[in-house]
Design brief:
The protein has 219 residues and is α/β, with parallel strands linked by helices. The protein contains 8 helices and 11 strands. The structure holds calcium ion.
């Protein structure tokens, strides 16, 4: 079951209908305190969380939830300043979307996070490439690949967005956060590192450049 925590009735109703149409079971709670209680008492597969809520705000709700549970949380909020996004991810949100949003994108991200939770031991796979997210190891066809923290984080982010073009700005925000904002060259540098450790060694074309747009790992 998916929990939607949202006090704007129209948005909640819209998301709920779309999710139910996709075959998910959905519960909607508008109040922050009530939602936290419910999230602690039930094992939701995923929570879509608004930040500005009556009772208890979403940030505080997430902070308290994370002391006890690692239920995947996607923040869905009207706030769109980078600092809010960084704060949300820092306190343990798994993803972040700003309103107005495309419902198809929300559905796609929900699928990614549900799939990730189901994969035993939280692994990401792409062909012969396997990432064990708990152990933070990577291997290709059984051969271990040694990656630095940022290389690893970038690869995880790219794999989580497999089939999508990831812009330099997106990658920068996701992996480096607020400090590096505006300096997107670092993404190109790390893509080169990853290519030298994976593409060159195993003779694959994992990280492809999309001219003028960013990078993609194709399905
Ligand atoms: Ca709200």
């Amino acid at each position: 079951m998916i929990l939607i925590v949202e006090d704007e009735v129209k948005i909640a109703r819209f998301v709920q209908l779309e999710l139910e149409h996709e075959g998910y079971e959905v519960r909607h709670i508008a109040d922050g305190n009530e939602a936290l209680q419910s999230a602690l008492e039930n094992d939701y597969e995923l929570i879509v969380l608004d930040l500005m809520l009556p009772g208890l705000n979403g940030t505080e709700l997430l902070r308290r939830l994370r002391r006890i549970k690692d239920t995947p949380v996607i923040i869905l909020t009207a706030r769109d300043r980078v600092i809010d996004k960084v704060e949300g991810l820092d306190i343990g949100a798994n993803d972040y979307m700003t309103k107005p949003f495309a419902i198809e994108e929300l559905l796609a991200r929900i699928r990614v996070h549900l799939k990730r939770g189901k994969e035993s031991g939280a692994r990401l796979k792409h062909g012969k490439l396997v990432l064990d997210l708990a152990a933070r190891t990577a291997s290709y066809d059984g051969a271990e690949i040694e990656l630095t923290k940022k290389e690893y984080d970038l690869l995880v982010y790219m794999l989580e967005h497999k089939g999508e073009i990831v812009s330099r700005e997106q990658a920068l925000e996701a992996v480096w956060g607020f400090d590096f904002y505006g300096n997107t060259n670092v993404v190109d540098v790390y893509v080169r590192y990853l290519r030298s450790k994976i593409d060159d060694v195993f003779d694959v074309k994992l990280l492809q450049t999309v001219r003028g747009a960013g990078y993609i790992i194709r399905e």
